[in-house]
Amino acid sequence: MKHKVMLQLSAFVIALTVLGHCKPADPVPDSVVQREDTLSITSLRAINSSSIPSSVRITDPGSEGVFIVDQSDLSSADNTGIVLVTLKGHRYKRDFSGPASLAWFGVKTSDADIGPALQAAVTATDNLFLPDGTYTQLTPVHLKSNLTLQANAGKVLITLPQSYVSLVNPDNPAIPLDHILVDGLAWNVTSRQTGTYGPIYIDGPSVTDITVQNCTSTDVAAKDSTNWFTLKVQAGKTAANITVRNNTVQAKRMACEIFNHDNFNIYAGKDITVSGNNFHDCHFGISLSGPLDQLTVDNNYIKNCSLFGIEIAGAARNTKITNNKFEGVFDKFLEGSNDGNGNGSIVGGMVITGNSTVGLCQGGIQLYNGGTVDFSKNNFRMTGVLELFPSTAGGMFTENTIESSSNKAIICDESPDHTFIKNTISNKTNNGNQATFIAYGAKAINIKLTNNKIIQGKGGKPYDSLGGGSIIASMNYDEEGNPIP
């Protein structure tokens, strides 16, 4: 019996040995040969040999460049522009420095919709350059953090015939947007759809360090009322270090709107600069609304805005409105549109200095929310009035020229404790002058007029207090230099 078992074991061992000799050998891994082949994108993708080049020079027009194999990468997707994948799964990556070109991703000016390829490029790289040309975009592109999107200013035009939106935040509002630069792009919005968005629309995530500069846009051919740049701070989110500068825009609704309406009494938006822009033929040129902090609106040229040129709405803090020029037709070319009730509290005052009108400007100025405003060295010729309301109190008005064709040039309407020194205040051209300067209402008290040139229109008075208002006047004089009693 033992002998039989030994024979069986011996036979089993012999069988295993035979099978081991019959097993196929492991395949030889693909080898990388140190050479550079010249291929098209199609040819590279079709490589199926066990010997592959270490680099490939791509010859496709617009996509030319050197790609180097990355043997450690087993997962990157083929995106045409900077990653190409062979039939056997080898990843070749473009060797380059500086920005990637949108042309590398196969985009042509003849494309019916650059949206999908532009999205692929934005996803693939952090620094993207759009070659000169005119493009059509039908589908929006979602932005991401750490992105630079740039073009030669005035050399790239994106037409939007279907969607108002060109660039938008990610669908998931939990994904923040940080460190984004959009530079030199131009849009022509011709969409006939109904919408209230615009080429750049950010609504949902928290945002930090976003700059939009040297861009142009027009929606004169569009159907609906759209913005150009919109940034909404949603409830529980924040916005900081936002810069909109050196852009030229015509927008049917607002050229630039940044607002915080959903964070009750919370200054969730701060450090916002809108400067050096040319905004024209809009309903609003600039609107910064809700509890916002550290606002700078400087050196903008605002023309023909049917409602407001510059609007600071709500209880803004640390606001500077400086060196802006206004031309043409407005309802109000400068508007502080409410006292912030429910939107925070007014702390300090606006600084409004060095601003001017170009020629005679139709419209006027209202300040509901100026706080202890510092209003100096402005030069305004206007058809309207400088109107001050209750939450503008304790302001200092110095060295301004306020010329109005209305029956009054300035009215403090329930607005107290202001001081006016060394201003020229005139409504000389008005034939039905009520009073050039008026303090109106029981709260409009302690208004000081000192050393001002006051040039009244026909009839009326140089200054007057009505409805319980009071003025303390001294050393004021008329157009000829004569003292005004």
Automatic annotation (TrEMBL):
Naturally occurring in which organism (per UniProt): Spirosoma flavum
Q: Which residues form the Right handed beta helix domain?
A: 206-380
Q: Which InterPro entries match?
A: Beta_helix, PbH1, Pectin_lyas_fold, Pectin_lyase_fold/virulence
Where does the source fall among the domains of life? Answer: Bacteria
User: Which Pfam families did the record assign?
Assistant: Beta_helix
What SUPFAM superfamilies does the record point to? Pectin lyase-like
Q: What is this protein called?
A: Right-handed parallel beta-helix repeat-containing protein
